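Lab manual, section 2.4: Encoding a predicted structure.

Procedure: take the sequence of the chain (119 residues), apply the prediction step described in section 2.3, and record the output as structure tokens. A sample record is shown.
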Amino acid sequence: ATSPSFRIDSPGTRCTDLELQLMAPAVIEGDVQQANGRPAVGVVVRVRYGTGLRREVVSSGYLEVVTDQRGRYRVAGVVPGEAMVHIVQDERIADAGIPVQAEAGATQQLELTVPATGR
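Recorded output:
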């Protein structure tokens, strides 16, 4: 939700003429493939959202999903604004992430590739 800035001078002060605008959540979806081009099944995709994501500031939250048998994923309920999409392996973020601008009410397609683990 967004609203213009306002100030409450003292307890019990009534605020009038405020307009609160609710934004529909965003959706990020796509396919995840392995380096050999095959679908990546059972891979965790994490979407971090919030402020300061590129400045290493802790984000305000994240959502995770697991890819299906065709390597597809769909993350619904993403807070509109700046977001980073990551692949998680062994309970750790496995890549640098892909920055996206999640738009209210929009669905964004994003194709991902699982990074090599070096094992």
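Check your result against the sample. Residues 39 and 68 are 9 Å apart (CA to CA).
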